[in-house]
Write a structure and sequence with these properties.
Number of domains: 2
Strand content: under 5%
Mean pLDDT: 71
Helix content: 55-70%
Oligomer: single chain
Shape: rod-shaped
Amino acid sequence: MDLVNYILTVCATATAVAIIVDNHKQFFQLTSFAIVLGFLVSGLYFCFLVVVATIAQTCSALGVHPQAFPPIAFSQQWINTTKIAFYHPTSPSMTFVMILSPTILASILRYQKHYYNEAHKTATLEILAAELAIQPFQKVVNRNTLELTKTRTCLSCPLCQQPFERPQTLTPCGHTFDLLCLQKHLRNSPPSLFDVQNNLVRLPSRQKLCPSCRVPTMAEPAPAWFVKCLVDTAAPPNTKIVPMHEGDDEDGDDTFRVDPWIGIYKEKPVSYAFIRRVAGFFRRGQIRGQ
């Protein structure tokens, strides 16, 4: 028993030393060999004790002790030895288990740490390689993003500082403004010196000046379709695209959908029914005068 105890203790101690000292490949191999050897010696030893104890108990129960079987004293000694091997705290099995249990736990923790470090190192290298691979493309993306930001800034209405929704270009200066902003500006702008000198009161007959350069306009603003296309193309994702012509006039007249400058650059057209009504009124007045 002392020999077996010594062998198992050496195996467990070698395992602990191999794990605690370092975690290289040769030490893992030494650890595995020591554990297997310890379990093998312990298993063979216990099997031998069980077989001998079983034979001794059988001979004692039958009261037969041939020369080929152990005598009673020898059988009783092996029975006691088996009990000690299984239940005594100083038995080889208990010694091996007491030393090997924390050793196995330390081995698991060491292997887990080693595996984590290797995985982390591999992942870090892969991330660095991926960043180096996409670095040229990232430069292109950053440059295009900067250009797109500048383009969005240029495609903003000078009056409201918001991206164009329905851009309109004035002539002859060529400045572009949003439709609603330009309508509001022209309706609320004070009369010019030309309007005062010529007693021009109604808005369609008054002079219209560009909000930026104050140059008189020569005609109605024209829709800037190219600017509208650029705005819609450079718009951020999930942005609602506003059509160039949207909605009716407040009084229900569909003419606003076709010409948004009625009442600003031109008078609102008179309906045919109104003309007939006025003509009938004058006709009746002439008949009564006769």
